[in-house]
Specification:
CATH architecture of the largest domain: Alpha-Beta Complex
Structural class: alpha/beta
Oligomer: single chain
Strand content: 15-25%
Radius of gyration: 19 Å
Number of helices: 11
Largest sheet: 6 strands, mixed
Length: about 270
């Protein structure tokens, strides 16, 4: 299956999603939004995919929303999306934002990223950046409120850092090094090594038990913002489920027998 604005490939159980509108700095339009929805659903549902990488084609990761799209009619809002699905008799799928994908997601930020596309960074499990990456949020500079972008951002970086980015708008860009210092990304690498490093991290993830990865990710995500006791209950719930799996038994056997485990994701 191919997509108009996303180059999607799967190799060795790793899906790579490349935002592919380089002539528009990979700016988000409605087609890309729809393509991403389909791609993330595929990542979520395909049992042969265990890890995903998202990156951008050309010199930019994504400059944000395509202003021409905003000027004409904007994006289809969730309620309008449901209405259109009902009119066309389409089975509505839950919108699978990155946080709703239970499999590990690596963001390989290859260049400029701004606005709505900051979500791809803040919702990734392991965001890494090229030394050429830059981050900014232009919403207030074009008359928009920075909403979900900063709601996500403030859960990754100190509030004052998120506030500065949101209020200065297009007039200030955060460097890759500064993004690393404040915790927006976990690693900065030479530009030409970015995808090599992303795939290397994906290969490391594949060495671990898939169900344990998924339970760990969901336990951490769903516990954010909750009192410690409630968050602990959620994490323990995933632990107890995974302890009933074949992979859990395989992991302990492989450790005792000093061999590489054979994960089945069941």
């Amino acid at each position: 299956m191919s997509y108009e604005t996303i180059h999607f490939e799967v190799a060795n159980r790793v899906a790579t999603l490349t935002l592919n509108r380089p002539e528009r700095m990979n700016a988000m339009n409605q087609q890309m939004k729809d393509d991403l929805r389909a791609c993330w659903t595929r990542v979520k549902e395909d049992p042969d995919i265990l890890v995903a990488i998202i990156t951008g084609a050309g010199d930019a990761f994504s400059s944000g929303a395509d202003v021409e799209t905003l000027d004409k009619k904007g994006f289809v809002k969730p309620d309008r999306w449901r209405e259109l699905c009902m009119q066309e008799n389409i089975r509505l799928q839950p919108t699978p934002r990155r946080m709703h994908v239970h499999k590990p997601v690596i963001a390989a930020v290859n260049g400029l990223v701004g606005g709505v596309s900051l979500d791809h960074v803040t919702e990734a499990d392991i965001p890494i950046a090229s030394e050429r990456a830059q981050f900014f949020d232009p919403h207030v500079s074009i008359g928009y409120v920075s909403s979900h972008e900063m709601v996500n951002m403030v859960r990754r970086v100190p509030p004052a850092v998120a506030m500065r980015m949101a209020l200065l708008g297009k007039y200030e860009r955060m460097s890759a090094q500064r993004a690393y210092e404040v915790g927006l990304v976990t690693e900065v690498v030479p530009h030409e090594q970015l995808m090599f490093r992303a795939r290397e991290l994906a290969e490391i993830l594949l060495k671990n038990a898939p169900l344990a990865l998924w339970g760990t990710k969901l336990g951490i995500q769903q516990g954010l913002g909750l009192p410690i006791a409630q968050a602990d209950d959620i994490a323990i719930g995933y632990l107890e489920v995974v302890e009933q799996s074949e992979d859990h038994k395989e992991g302990t056997r492989a450790f005792i027998e000093k061999r590489k485990p054979d994960w089945k994701a069941r």
